[in-house]
């Protein structure tokens, strides 16, 4: 049984004491938390012990027809210009623009039959990452806790000074909802535009370039830049005790405790430091935004972070399109030129990460997930006055790539019809992916939290783990 489940916590410390502790990590003060029965069972079953997820999020919605579910026999107004190529798994084909991934298909699985009902970006993100449809359509912040926040809440304290949940920036329609600010991700340099519906901001780095000022961001109601312990102490001392009336002081104390863990220890800074990697490794991933981002993701989970989410944004040439995400409407970009431009970098960096999961013995404990909030319309659109091609939002079908995680790889689960419009075999709600991840984390999806009105809301109300993966 994992040590983190064995002993009891020695009790809370006041806020100033935390700041005076200096180099002590949380592990030196609290050896564990008292688990619920289902947590003990999960630990005994080997579920949740040192399991981590890297979510490489194609915000905007990637085209399943042009990546992992090509339909070469469909009419020309559906199939697009790219041809499928064989992989090293019999019967599995993917886009010709992904030759590196094609050689590694035995190390990943494709889900081709997930779907849900929300076709707005933030509504789709809320639906996909929380398992619940939101009331609002274009919501900046999710109405229910996203999976990374649930993992943070359920798994409790950080280990050895590392945060449990790290992101490059906030997702549009993401957030901890009623779990509170303590369960937002740690973000090195977030950009608020990423939660506004803007689709042309510069890609937000997760990595830390040499000479970059340390700036780990935590926010109760906005962003507080944590640069030095003294600044942190001064800012926290200014919070009025009246916050206790609304029960927010506990959240602030949790934020402070986690901030001190990070500032006091060096493991977090080391995990972000790409100069510790060899020149060969950095070249293998590519000296690009995606290469440096995915290499940092690997370093974070290897150090002990349990959930890392990173937007897969890319700066296109001006002549190709104005968007930096995967929202490839005709009015935003020439979809096919955009894919020719960015998929070589995507193929290189994702292939390098998959290689490292297996070469470094992480494949049983770390799961890479690549997806977005939905797919794209099977029929090609030409709304832009230039007549360039694009595809619109489509939540009735999508493709998800999974690699590692101790799951069964080298297969395709599900099938869409001849135009990739909807699943026709192994039809699954997107909640099935969430249920799969929660099972691997050892988290009981029937567990409930109180929302802002005091009502108990289950983590998930529907969705079964995907049996083919186990």
Describe the structure.
This protein starts with 14 loop residues before the first helix and ends in a 12-residue tail after the last strand. The protein has one domain (3-469): Alkaline Phosphatase, subunit A. The chain has helices at residues 15-20, 37-44, 64-67, 76-79, 99-102, 121-130, 147-155, 229-237, 249-264, 267-272, 279-285, 289-303, 335-359, 431-441, and strands at 52-57, 84-86, 93-95, 108-115, 165-167, 216-218, 224-226, 307-311, 366-371, 375-376, 393-394, 398-404, 411-413, 415-416, 423-425, 428-429, 448-450, 456-458. With 470 residues, it is an alpha/beta fold. Strands 1, 4, 5, 8, 9, 12, 13 and 16 form an 8-stranded mixed sheet that branches. A two-stranded antiparallel sheet has the order 2-3. Helix content is 29%, strand content 14%. Helix 11 (279-285) packs across helix 12.
Features:
globular, Alkaline Phosphatase, subunit A, single chain, 470 residues, 14% strand, two-stranded antiparallel ribbon
**Principal-axes shape call:** globular
Given the helix and strand composition, which structural class is it? Answer: alpha/beta
Q: What's the architecture in CATH terms?
A: 3-Layer(aba) Sandwich
Low-confidence stretches: 1-46, 214-237, 239-247
- Please, how many helices? 14
Q: Provide the residue-averaged pLDDT.
A: 84
Largest sheet: 8 strands, mixed
Tell me the count of domains.
Answer: 1
Helix content bin: 25-40%
Reported by name, the CATH topology is Alkaline Phosphatase, subunit A
What is the CA–CA distance across the termini?
A: 21 Å
């Amino acid at each position: 049984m994992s040590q983190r489940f064995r002993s009891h916590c020695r009790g809370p410390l006041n806020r100033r004491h935390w700041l005076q502790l200096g180099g002590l990590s949380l592990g030196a003060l609290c050896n564990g938390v008292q688990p619920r029965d289902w947590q003990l069972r999960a630990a005994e079953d080997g579920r949740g012990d040192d399991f981590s997820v890297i979510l490489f999020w194609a915000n905007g919605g990637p085209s399943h027809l042009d990546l992992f579910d090509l339909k070469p026999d469909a009419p020309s107004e559906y199939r697009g210009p790219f041809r499928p190529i064989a992989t090293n798994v019999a019967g599995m084909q993917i886009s010709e623009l992904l030759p590196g991934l094609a050689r590694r298909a035995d190390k990943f699985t494709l889900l081709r039959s997930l779907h849900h009902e929300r076709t707005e970006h933030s509504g789709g993100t809320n639906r996909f990452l929380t398992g619940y449809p939101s009331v609002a359509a274009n919501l900046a912040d999710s109405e229910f806790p996203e999976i990374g926040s649930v993992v943070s809440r359920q798994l409790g304290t950080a280990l050895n000074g590392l945060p449990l949940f790290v992101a490059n920036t906030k997702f549009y329609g993401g957030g901890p909802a009623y779990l509170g600010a303590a369960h937002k991700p740690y973000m090195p340099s977030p950009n608020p535009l990423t939660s506004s519906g803007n689709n042309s901001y510069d890609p937000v780095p997760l990595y830390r370039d040499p000479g970059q000022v340390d700036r780990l961001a935590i926010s109760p109601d906005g962003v507080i830049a944590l640069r030095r312990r003294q600044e942190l102490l001064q800012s926290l001392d200014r919070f009025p005790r009246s916050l206790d009336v609304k029960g927010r002081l506990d959240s602030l104390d949790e934020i402070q405790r986690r901030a001190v863990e990070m500032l006091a220890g060096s493991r977090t800074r080391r995990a972000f430091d790409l100069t510790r990697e060899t020149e060969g490794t950095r070249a293998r991933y590519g000296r690009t935004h995606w290469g440096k981002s995915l290499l940092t993701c690997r370093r974070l989970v290897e150090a002990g972070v349990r959930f890392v989410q990173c937007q897969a944004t890319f700066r296109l040439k001006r002549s190709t399109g104005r968007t930096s995400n995967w929202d490839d409407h005709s009015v935003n970009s020439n979809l096919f030129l955009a894919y020719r431009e960015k998929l070589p970098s995507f193929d290189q960096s994702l292939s390098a990460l998959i290689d490292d999961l297996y070469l470094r013995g992480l494949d049983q404990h770390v799961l890479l997930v690549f997806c977005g909030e939905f797919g794209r319309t099977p029929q090609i659109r030409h709304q832009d006055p230039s007549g360039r091609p694009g595809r619109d939002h489509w939540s009735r079908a999508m493709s998800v790539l999974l690699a590692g995680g101790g799951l069964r790889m080298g297969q395709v689960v599900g099938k869409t019809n001849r135009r990739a419009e909807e699943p026709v075999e192994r039809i699954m709600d997107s909640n099935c992916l969430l249920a799969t991840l929660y099972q691997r984390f050892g988290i009981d999806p029937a567990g409930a939290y109180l929302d802002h009105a005091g009502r108990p809301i289950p983590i998930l109300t529907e969705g079964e783990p995907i049996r083919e993966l186990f």
